[in-house]
Amino acid sequence: MTDLPYRPNVGALLFNAEGLILVARRADMPNAEGAPGGWQLPQGGMDEGEDPRIAVLRELEEEIGTSRAEIIEEHPEWLTYDLPQELIGVALRGQYRGQRQKWFALRFTGQDGDIRLDLDPHPEFDAWRWARLAELPAMAVAFKREIYERLARDFAHLAA
């Protein structure tokens, strides 16, 4: 496992005017309404040589169908997580041990109707909602929970 690299990745905490964040339900877990891992933050891989600030805006548009956002804060560190042993060689095309992530807080500048999960022919998410930042760690799968706890703590000053 340690021979495999981390996949470069960006993640977005999209805050609305009320200080709530957008969470989206994974399309491959439609019955996981309250299950950890069913809901998550938008995130995605970076292209070779891509600037993380550009990548996070691209990922928002690809995953939730809107670019109506502006970066308000960048997490000072790259955060990493390892996949559980049973997912090594399966998840992330089997090429990575986990992900190395740069997280951003963004202000949503649009209206709820600007969020369009139906634009991608193979959407990652099938539902979305606004949530309190403090709810975030309980939504995470176990192997991502530490990162979500860190994000909830480090971006708490932006929340409702």
Automatic annotation (TrEMBL):
Matches recorded under Gene3D superfamilies: Nucleoside Triphosphate Pyrophosphohydrolase
Domain Nudix hydrolase: 5-153
Residues spanned by motif Nudix box: 44-65
Enzyme Commission code(s) on record: 3.6.1.-
Cofactor(s) the record lists: a divalent metal cation; Mg(2+)
UniProt cross-references to SUPFAM superfamilies, sorted A to Z: Nudix
Keywords: Hydrolase
Keyword Hydrolase recorded: yes
One Pfam family, short name: NUDIX
Nuclease as UniProt keyword: no
GO-annotated molecular function: hydrolase activity
Function: Accelerates the degradation of transcripts by removing pyrophosphate from the 5'-end of triphosphorylated RNA, leading to a more labile monophosphorylated state that can stimulate subsequent ribonuclease cleavage.
Family to which this protein belongs: Belongs to the Nudix hydrolase family. RppH subfamily.
HAMAP family: Nudix_RppH (MF_00298)
PANTHER family assigned to the protein according to its UniProt record, in alphabetical order: NUDIX HYDROLASE 26, CHLOROPLASTIC, UDP/ADP-SUGAR PYROPHOSPHATASE
Protein name per the record: RNA pyrophosphohydrolase
Originating species: Plastoroseomonas hellenica
Name of the encoding gene: rppH
